[in-house]
Design brief:
The protein has helices spanning 7-20, 73-86, and strands at 25-29, 38-43, 48-56, 63-72, 91-96. It is of the alpha+beta class and 111 residues long. The chain has a single domain, classed as Protein of unknown function (DUF1491) (hypothetical protein tt1805, 3-Layer(aba) Sandwich). The protein has a five-stranded mixed β-sheet with strand order 1-5-2-3-4. β2 and β3 (48-56) form a beta hairpin.
Protein backbone atom coordinates (compact mmCIF):
# COMPACT_ATOMS: atom_id res chain seq x y z
CA UNK A 1 0.00 0.00 0.00
CA UNK A 2 1.45 3.35 -1.01
CA UNK A 3 1.37 6.41 1.21
CA UNK A 4 -1.10 9.08 0.16
CA UNK A 5 -0.21 12.72 -0.14
CA UNK A 6 -1.80 15.15 2.26
CA UNK A 7 -4.73 16.83 0.51
CA UNK A 8 -3.20 20.30 0.70
CA UNK A 9 0.02 19.08 -0.95
CA UNK A 10 -1.93 17.29 -3.70
CA UNK A 11 -4.06 20.40 -4.35
CA UNK A 12 -0.96 22.60 -4.57
CA UNK A 13 0.67 20.26 -7.10
CA UNK A 14 -2.56 19.99 -9.10
CA UNK A 15 -2.94 23.76 -9.29
CA UNK A 16 0.64 24.03 -10.56
CA UNK A 17 -0.04 21.48 -13.31
CA UNK A 18 -3.19 23.32 -14.32
CA UNK A 19 -1.37 26.65 -14.42
CA UNK A 20 1.36 25.13 -16.63
CA UNK A 21 -1.36 23.85 -18.99
CA UNK A 22 -3.01 27.32 -19.08
CA UNK A 23 -6.20 26.02 -17.47
CA UNK A 24 -7.70 28.63 -15.11
CA UNK A 25 -8.39 27.10 -11.68
CA UNK A 26 -9.66 28.36 -8.36
CA UNK A 27 -9.97 26.83 -4.91
CA UNK A 28 -13.55 27.71 -3.98
CA UNK A 29 -13.62 25.66 -0.77
CA UNK A 30 -10.54 24.88 1.28
CA UNK A 31 -10.85 21.56 3.06
CA UNK A 32 -8.82 19.67 5.62
CA UNK A 33 -5.14 20.05 4.66
CA UNK A 34 -4.31 16.49 5.70
CA UNK A 35 -7.21 14.25 4.75
CA UNK A 36 -9.93 16.26 3.04
CA UNK A 37 -11.60 14.77 -0.02
CA UNK A 38 -11.41 16.71 -3.30
CA UNK A 39 -14.09 17.57 -5.86
CA UNK A 40 -13.00 19.03 -9.19
CA UNK A 41 -15.59 21.00 -11.16
CA UNK A 42 -14.89 22.04 -14.74
CA UNK A 43 -17.05 24.74 -16.32
CA UNK A 44 -17.21 24.27 -20.10
CA UNK A 45 -18.06 27.98 -20.57
CA UNK A 46 -21.27 27.14 -22.45
CA UNK A 47 -23.55 26.94 -19.40
CA UNK A 48 -22.64 23.32 -18.64
CA UNK A 49 -20.20 21.74 -16.22
CA UNK A 50 -18.90 18.45 -14.89
CA UNK A 51 -17.82 17.52 -11.37
CA UNK A 52 -15.44 14.70 -10.48
CA UNK A 53 -14.75 13.00 -7.18
CA UNK A 54 -12.04 10.49 -6.27
CA UNK A 55 -13.39 7.28 -4.79
CA UNK A 56 -11.77 4.15 -3.44
CA UNK A 57 -12.74 0.61 -4.35
CA UNK A 58 -13.32 -1.05 -0.98
CA UNK A 59 -12.32 -4.48 -2.33
CA UNK A 60 -9.04 -3.53 -4.02
CA UNK A 61 -8.12 -0.22 -2.41
CA UNK A 62 -7.67 1.27 -5.89
CA UNK A 63 -8.61 4.93 -6.25
CA UNK A 64 -10.16 6.48 -9.35
CA UNK A 65 -11.79 9.73 -10.41
CA UNK A 66 -15.46 9.26 -11.19
CA UNK A 67 -17.98 11.61 -12.76
CA UNK A 68 -20.09 12.93 -9.90
CA UNK A 69 -22.36 15.22 -11.94
CA UNK A 70 -22.76 16.57 -15.45
CA UNK A 71 -25.22 19.03 -16.94
CA UNK A 72 -26.32 22.61 -16.49
CA UNK A 73 -23.68 24.46 -14.48
CA UNK A 74 -26.26 25.71 -11.99
CA UNK A 75 -27.37 22.11 -11.31
CA UNK A 76 -23.77 20.94 -10.88
CA UNK A 77 -23.16 23.87 -8.51
CA UNK A 78 -26.15 22.83 -6.39
CA UNK A 79 -24.85 19.26 -6.13
CA UNK A 80 -21.33 20.42 -5.22
CA UNK A 81 -22.76 22.80 -2.57
CA UNK A 82 -24.86 19.97 -1.12
CA UNK A 83 -21.80 17.71 -1.01
CA UNK A 84 -19.78 20.45 0.69
CA UNK A 85 -22.52 21.03 3.29
CA UNK A 86 -22.29 17.35 4.28
CA UNK A 87 -18.47 17.36 4.36
CA UNK A 88 -16.86 20.54 5.75
CA UNK A 89 -13.40 18.99 5.15
CA UNK A 90 -14.04 18.85 1.38
CA UNK A 91 -11.84 20.76 -1.06
CA UNK A 92 -13.58 22.17 -4.14
CA UNK A 93 -11.45 23.17 -7.11
CA UNK A 94 -13.15 24.90 -10.04
CA UNK A 95 -11.65 24.97 -13.53
CA UNK A 96 -12.66 26.78 -16.70
CA UNK A 97 -11.95 24.98 -19.96
CA UNK A 98 -14.08 24.80 -23.11
CA UNK A 99 -12.64 21.38 -23.95
CA UNK A 100 -13.36 20.05 -20.44
CA UNK A 101 -9.71 19.29 -19.68
CA UNK A 102 -9.02 18.41 -16.04
CA UNK A 103 -5.67 16.55 -16.35
CA UNK A 104 -7.04 14.02 -13.83
CA UNK A 105 -6.12 11.20 -16.21
CA UNK A 106 -2.41 12.09 -16.09
CA UNK A 107 0.22 10.13 -14.15
CA UNK A 108 0.36 11.20 -10.53
CA UNK A 109 -3.16 12.63 -10.62
CA UNK A 110 -5.14 9.65 -11.82
CA UNK A 111 -4.58 7.42 -8.78
Amino acid sequence: MSARLASGVWVSGYLTRLRLADIPAYVTAKGDPQAGAVVVKVALLDGTARAYERRSDLMTGARAWILLAEGAETDVDVLVARTRSRDPDLWVIELEDRAGRTLLDQDGLSD
